[in-house]
Design a protein that fits this description.
Elements lengths: L6 E10 L2 E2 L1 H10 L5 E2 L10 E2 L7 H4 L10 H16 L12 E6 L5 H14 L8 H5 L3 H10 L5 E4 L5 H14 L5 E8 L4 H9 L29 E9 H6 L6 E10 L12 H13 L9 E3 L6 H15 L4 E3 L2 H4 L6 H15 L1 E2 L15 E2 L5 E2 L4 E8 L3 E8 L2
Parallel strand pairs: 5-6, 5-7, 10-11, 10-15, 11-13
Antiparallel strand pairs: 1-2, 1-8, 1-9, 3-4, 7-8, 9-16, 12-14, 15-16
């Protein structure tokens, strides 16, 4: 039984450093201007820049829900999910919640709350620890609260595959639809962990850029002078339905989720396999699932973290599998690296590239890595028909995920 083209993307919601809402995000990503800026909360730290969501007002965006109870990563997720559901033309008051599912990725949970409450315990004793500590900290609470907010009575699943979490969530949602478990699935991821402790850890392990350049020029995926990523927060949510169901209700289909592949490196806690064999398996699986020849891929939104090792390994893999025909970008040059949320945010950008026939440039790409034979998009967006697009995600622990989207 064929599955090609059976899953439709009918809604998108984005809350990222590039803006609040799909349109604002798309304009900023196409501009190729980085969102990185000095971060007052990180003053005196080894790395003092980040990419935060600007102007996010949880009370305004989450009216009707007690936003004060929620950790920021949950607030971001709920705001993005509400946008996505509206974009898909659904009203949760009128759907059959038993046929709706949620799959939401997150890695670091309520890191800020945990740090604050640890300080409260140490400095003032156990009576000063908040009763909200556990529910604000638990990484699954994005999925849990989204189900509460939307009246979702089907599966509510939290996914944690590090920086591949968002893509894994989208692929898992596909499986729920194909199996008949759900008719609608809200899939994506969120992250907000730009705390002094987390950022210190990322800096000490060498993941963050130590560049002394102006903040907006630091994140430079696939550039010869890249030296690490800029950490970010954000959320992305996609509404997925079977194509026949979307057609039956007259929904607008932004793109089709045609293929998904996942794999493990079984190699190292943080470094990808030196030959990129794990992510290659995920990509080939996704292409096979979509019944797409590698040479047919028009566009890639690569993981492209701007770390020296990742970009080299991933770039060589892309050329080995796809050849030189696909136009490649990494939108992390604009948004920074939103960790667990990255794969969901980039999946949404890939859908938009397919829908609009426009591919974003790599921000700050001045001197492309000479060891790579890729058609990297630099300077300006590239316009052209995008029939098939690939989004790749890699995570600490050796998690890999790849998504293939095709024109509706």
């Amino acid at each position: 039984m064929t599955h090609v083209g059976d899953i439709a993307v009918t809604g998108l919601g984005l809350v990222t450093p590039a803006g609040i809402g799909v349109e604002e995000n798309w304009r900023r990503v196409l501009s190729g201007r980085s969102c990185a800026a000095p971060d007052e909360a990180l003053a005196g730290m080894p790395v003092g820049i980040s990419c935060r969501v600007p102007g996010f007002d949880a009370e305004e965006l989450l009216q009707g829900f007690p936003a004060w109870q929620l950790e920021r990563f949950v607030q971001l997720a709920l705001a993005a999910a509400r946008m996505a559901v509206r974009d898909a033309g659904w009203d949760p008051r009128h759907w059959d919640g038993t046929r709706v599912g949620v799959v939401l990725g997150n890695s670091l949970g309520g890191a800020a709350t945990f740090e604050d409450q640890h300080d409260a315990l140490r400095e003032r004793g156990p009576d000063k620890v908040s009763p909200l500590l556990v529910t604000r900290y638990m990484p699954n609470m994005g999925a849990g609260y989204l189900a509460i907010d939307m009246g979702v009575l089907g599966p509510s699943i939290g996914v944690a595959t590090a920086c591949a979490s968002g893509a894994t969530a989208v692929g898992t949602a596909r499986d729920l639809l194909r199996s008949g478990t759900c008719d609608i699935v809200l899939a994506g991821a969120s992250e907000s962990a730009l705390t002094r402790t987390v950022m210190s850890g990322l800096a000490k392990m060498g993941a963050l850029s130590r560049s002394k350049a102006a903040a907006e020029h630091v994140s430079k995926p696939f550039d010869a002078e890249r030296d690490g990523f800029v950490a970010a927060e954000g959320a992305g949510v996609l509404v997925l339905e079977r194509t026949r169901d979307a057609a039956a209700r007259g929904a607008t289909v932004r793109a089709l989720l045609a293929g998904y592949g996942t794999s493990s490196d079984a190699h190292h806690a943080t470094a990808p396999h030196p030959d990129g064999l794990g992510i290659e398996r995920a990509v080939r699986t996704a292409l096979g699932d979509a019944a797409v020849a590698p040479a047919s891929v028009d566009h890639v939104n690569a993981h492209g973290t701007a770390t020296p090792m990742n970009d080299l390994i991933e770039g060589r893999m892309l050329h080995r599998v796809l050849g030189g025909g696909a136009a490649v970008t990494s939108t992390k040059g604009v948004t920074g690296h939103a960790l667990a949320a990255a794969g969901a945010i980039e999946a949404a950008y890939t859908v938009l590239a397919v829908q609009h026939g426009v591919m974003p440039p790599v921000a700050n790409l001045k001197n492309p890595e000479p060891a790579l034979e890729l058609d990297l998009i630099s300077g300006e967006p590239r316009t052209g028909h995008v029939e098939v697009a690939l989004s790749t995600s890699l995570g600490f622990g050796g998690h890999n995920a790849a998504l293939v989207f095709t024109a509706a």
